[in-house]
């Protein structure tokens, strides 16, 4: 499907939301000069448009296939992945000390956005590797880093995250995989993991599995979990005992093989401990936090791609008339409303995710306030970013009318692909629980208060009203009963996300120029502030309601 | 997939929303006695649960198949359809004079709801026949009625509606199919029609196509359109010149073959005129109005089925703990919020669609006020009913977590099946345009005023506020510029639909008893009024905005 990387918009958001110039002024991110950013955005645009996007449809129709010898990707994927590796795109966000280019995480986000808009399922391979790289960076020994990081950074090897087991979905503490010391410092790994994206494939020479498991006599629950590195290939020619049992038959994202992996079926699966014993949850959160941002980013990816496709169709499809002339459907007010909404929501999600990404970089520079901002923005970016991806993909189908329901058109693929994103990397309900359970009270409530304070800089009346409502609801929930907090969590998450987007977009409009891009930006932002922000106020009643009404209907009565 | 017909709820809604006793008190609907209604609801429940539901998955995975000899349904469908015909279910809503049982349209709705929840794609076959029956009933000559109606009524033959052509989607007036007099009173039909649901299949001996076409020298646009009856089989053994060119590869609803039909490729396609020449649009609206209600009903079908499935999963899936005990996920507040929302929205959609169906019956009794109520409720029932179907199906996927994305689970099928309903039978945008373009000013605004007046009986503060907002917005739009009306059409449609649902549900709660059903009803309605109704107020800003902001971004700038 044709796709054009939105370079002007990405550069603008990097400048005005990430404030990349401030990052480039530091020693760590000195590489992020404007000309480098331009070269990155243009280069990845070319790769995505020219090599990744044309494979997206085969990714859906052919998909990754399980064979007894491992998972095989559709024709062309190996070459397109090789181009990604050889272009050095994997190393963008990796620190120079580990062989990377040392560019900010936010720039890596822009790269992954472009790849994922072109081919969402395929782009999961690099995204998963990012998590593995970060876990090693923060928790690996120097030897482990030297062994594994260089080829993970280039993408010659890919990484996976192995958390979920059949009986332990969102409840990670219930996992049962075991790691038994082999006496030589390594561990024998045994267990079954499910939902492992790119758990196997033929794109790379090796796959580095990061696996949560329990050592003998480990305490129950999350406290007893440790993280292990389990390579697919132990050393050249020697395969580890990791078996791909099957891949899932999913509604979408068929280019991404979702594997069931069996570790140690033959009692010969060797892993090494990453970080301290029982440090698994901490290491996992390192992987997961940024992975959550990257899933929020998938919302941006699919929203951008779906919008481009719908706009193209609406400009070409002649239907009905305006002022006596046959007209393209983009001229009809309700179609235009849908397209304007798609555009505004896409820009909102991008602002939110890039903003959070910018906080990753500031936190990496030791900025404690940025760490707090990141913590609170992460569930918003993951949940609201993916909610937007789904809404926009659905509007994209609607703009196409009957054609949208026909698979050959491609709008349906976005709709199906997007639907996993509110589920994986912690369901959006888990994100909402994280917001009200940990983030509202983080730093004794200072993190939440700081976000509210930031947003008080907003001037639009609807935005000011929404910020005040978020403040009142959030402060009340800080001391509320746990069930009441959770009952209100999703409505508050949406309100707070929309407020954050509105605040960021208002800043974008204020800093936009008077060129065509700037005028368009102002029109889109005005629509968001005037029409989308007020919608979120409609959630206030639900955000203020206690849990009791939900339990007024007994569990048995739901089935009656 | 297991499904249980919600008989108690259906009976309750027939009693308190349709007020079926009032209908049964008339001569025309005297057959609708309480024991007959009970027998109908229970009988169709048995057929749906026992024979239709078990075929739903094969309908998706195998689907209807095109072959050179026509479309073939999956194994078991022919027998299940035969059971429907032999049970007399097709004749439920057909007047006694045409060989039917003379029961109200609202009762037919309940029958189709149950069939469609069990197997949504399959149930389209009977639904399409209903449109053909009604067109013949109202516009056929006595001879035509005698020839075609009896077997359409029993379901021995099925019916189709042929409107859309490749170049004419929502713009019916642009159609080009031709009908040329053959000199014997019949017409030679020529043209290609697309998106013809059950345009061919092997369930019935004959298929009665109702086809819009132009006679020679017909005026341009919708004024020049006439309706023709084109049978698949002209007389025993003699096939008409109607060819199934292909069936669409759709995202869902695979049990329903969506055909491209070519009429008169060999210049030997014979049709007969239904109603007067150039009366095609009027006849089409007869078919379409009730077809629109039946599509709104599909929203209820899929919402009910998705809710039942999600509730079952949530009661069985153990994950995490509450009060130190392993708990089923239905016990977690945010999961319960989703399920409560699914249940409330499903009941809201059912109330809205059954209410409109009850107005069909009253209008058939000559009640002019009911005719107005029906006219204004039709776009609400179609658009909001299907919007709810999609929202609830999506929540159903979410409740299942990762399992929801795996096709074998079945939640994804609902999500894919539902997505066509906001598109066909007039996109929901077309429904919104109908609301603001024709219905707001119907009977000089009296129809709208009557609905508002009805809803002023509501007592919940949020409902009263919403009704007042609908009144203010609607009255302003009655005299607004066409573009401003259309720009505000969808937000108003949603507000007015939610208000109508809230008003009807409040009545349900008020009339519910103190038994288990009544207590559950009150809990669900309280949730709807307290938490869903206020959301709709968030749309007021968009409903009050003019069209100008949508055009502030030029068409070209959307692609930039």
TrEMBL record, chains A, B:
Residues 280-435 form the Acyl-CoA dehydrogenase/oxidase C-terminal domain. One of its GO terms (molecular function) is flavin adenine dinucleotide binding. Residues 73-156 form the Acyl-CoA dehydrogenase/oxidase N-terminal domain. Its EC number is 1.3.1.95. It holds the Pfam family Acyl-CoA_dh_M. Its cofactor is FAD. This is Acryloyl-CoA reductase (NADH). The lineage of its organism: Bacteria, Pseudomonadati, Pseudomonadota, Alphaproteobacteria, Sphingomonadales.
